[in-house]
Design brief:
Blueprint: H1 2-15, H2 70-84, H3 97-111, E1 130-131, H4 138-147, E2 161-164, E3 169-172, E4 188-195, E5 201-206, E6 212-217, E7 221-226, E8 232-237, E9 243-248, E10 254-259, E11 264-268, E12 273-278, E13 285-290, E14 296-301, E15 305-310, E16 316-321, E17 327-332, E18 339-343, E19 348-352, E20 357-362, E21 369-374, E22 380-385, E23 389-393, E24 398-403, E25 410-415, E26 420-425, E27 429-434, E28 440-445, E29 459-464, E30 470-475, E31 479-485
Antiparallel strand pairs: 1-3, 2-3, 4-31, 5-6, 6-7, 7-8, 9-10, 10-11, 11-12, 13-14, 14-15, 15-16, 17-18, 18-19, 19-20, 21-22, 22-23, 23-24, 25-26, 26-27, 27-28, 29-30, 30-31
Length: 505
């Protein structure tokens, strides 16, 4: 037992810097308990005791840590922070005043040389009516004219001044711009009813050649129809739930579709099969839009986000977040704002596609917004909600006017080059509007297919063809209806009374 203890102590000494005694003779010294004589080795000679070396304490240097008070430490920290922010090293070098003046003069000569010497514009003040007390005499009228520069004197030849003794006011003719009159549009009538889907028809899009159009339905199929004859050309299957959006590319032989199965698919129309999937949405996808100039696809859905996809690489470029509820529709255009979304949180958002951030948020609607439409030639767009249809001006979303008259939930909008806006509601009512003035020149109730319930008269989507002379509607009675203008209609006078108290919100 003592031999084992000695070997262990020798190993500890070697670990702490002491010599490792590996010689058996040196670590085999035994003593009998209670005696000072050795138990073996040379008789009569006592083996001297060997004291193991201790660890070398001289190799360990202990430095005393100077202790400071909390006040000193806080003061030092404040001083370091002050020294760090004392000098604005990242700030630009200040420009001398001489350089600023030289830059202004150079810009004035290079850009405004042709107009800097022109006369100042004449500012025309608005003319107001001046109320009077008792009938005025000639001297009182002259004093009023002298005190008010807006009233012309008797020497002027203007006919704007009129003195009415009954109302006791001097009225000046106001130069208001005349209100625009609505343009006459021929009425629309039903042209064809197409049956073929086994469920609600939820979306539609027209090919850029204007030869065929495509529809998606709750029966999980995508059907391609001939526009001239209305016959079925092709059926595509692949979605496992309702198809909610379709979009045909103008620059590629591609058809894009999305549905409630969280999938966004790219179909090659030359092979009639799916060639790409775009994964990323966390819930049902409700709408699609293809950018007119970039190879970019935008999709929105119930996960309250708008995802921007690269068509070729299937990469998600941006995930535009900010809405707090389902995003129902998305539109894209070549000019700013390039992406517009409408949501059930009662807001319309205009997006900056480069930064991936919101450019403006429009909060004028009081109900959920389900549809958007962009004017094909003007720099404006419209949004549809259960309260009314609103018109907006790009790029900052300035409010233009309200179009009121629907008493139902609006699901869809369509607009052609002639300024005819069509809105379809959940109860089957279709209203035709003049885009410029907001005049509702026609309205009627969609007729359901024989054998269907009256409650199945709702409209889910509509789209004009590229000529603007055909309107394609998708309805809840599983049919597709095509409307056209009445070519035999004669122009009639319009009995239109403008709403002078038009709401500005």
């Amino acid at each position: 037992t003592s031999i084992r203890l000695y070997i262990i102590s020798s190993g500890i000494n070697a670990e702490y810097g002491g010599p490792l005694r590996s010689n058996i003779k040196q670590r085999s010294v035994l003593r009998t308990p209670g005696s000072g004589t050795p138990s073996h080795d040379t008789p009569g000679r006592a083996t001297p005791k060997r004291t193991p070396k201790r660890p070398a304490e001289s190799l360990v240097f202990k430095e005393e840590v100077q202790r400071h008070t909390v006040h000193t430490l806080v003061f030092r920290s404040l001083k370091r922070t002050h020294d760090m922010f004392l000098y604005d090293q990242w700030a630009p070098i200040p420009t001398p005043l001489e350089m600023k003046d030289a830059r202004k003069n150079l810009k004035k000569l290079s850009e405004y040389a042709s107009v800097k010497d022109m006369d100042a514009p004449v500012i025309v003040r608005k003319e107001k009516s001046v109320p009077l007390g008792p009938p005025t005499t000639g001297q009182e009228l002259v004093s009023i004219q002298n005190n008010n520069p807006n009233i012309p004197s008797e020497k002027t030849t203007s006919n704007a001044l009129a003195l009415n003794q009954n109302t006791k006011t001097i009225t000046l003719a106001s130069r208001r711009a005349p209100l625009p009159k609505p343009q006459w549009h021929p009425p629309w009538k039903l042209m064809r009813v197409i049956s073929g889907h086994l469920g609600w028809v939820r979306c539609v899009d027209v090919d850029h050649t204007n030869d065929w159009f495509v529809t998606g339905s709750a029966d999980r199929t995508i059907k391609i129809w001939d526009l001239a004859s209305g016959t079925l050309k092709l059926s595509l299957t692949g979605h496992i739930s309702t198809v909610r959006g379709v979009a045909v590319s103008d620059r590629h032989p591609y058809l894009f579709s999305c549905g409630e199965d969280k999938q966004v698919k790219c179909w090659d129309l030359e092979q009639n099969k799916v060639i790409r999937h775009y994964h990323g949405h966390l819930s049902a996808v409700y709408a699609l839009s293809i950018h007119p100039t970039l190879d970019v696809l935008c999709s929105v859905g119930r996960d309250a986000s708008c995802r921007v996809w690269d068509m070729r690489t299937k990469a998600c470029i941006h995930t535009l977040t900010g809405h707090t509820n389902t995003v129902a529709d998305v539109k894209t255009q070549a000019t700013e704002p390039q992406i517009i979304t409408a949501s059930h949180d009662c807001t319309v958002r205009l997006w900056d596609i480069v930064a991936g951030k919101t450019r403006a948020t429009l909060t004028n609607h009081k109900k959920s917004i389900r549809s958007l439409v962009i004017h094909p030639t003007q720099y404006t767009f419209g949004s549809a909600s259960a309260d009314n249809v609103k018109q907006w001006k790009c790029p900052d979303g300035e409010f233009i006017q309200n179009l009121t008259g629907h008493n139902a939930i609006l699901n869809t909008l369509a607009l052609n080059q002639d300024g005819v806006l069509v809105s379809g509601a959940d109860n089957g009512t279709i209203h035709f509007w003049d885009w410029k003035t907001g005049y509702n020149f026609q309205r009627f109730q969609s007729q359901v297919q024989p054998g269907s319930l009256d409650s199945e008269a709702g409209l889910f989507a509509m789209r004009f063809d590229h000529s603007g002379s055909r309107l394609i509607t998708c309805e809840a009675d599983k049919t597709i209806k095509i409307y056209k203008e009445d070519e035999n209609a004669l122009e009639e006078p319009i009995n239109w009374k403008p709403d002078l108290l038009r709401k500005k919100y």
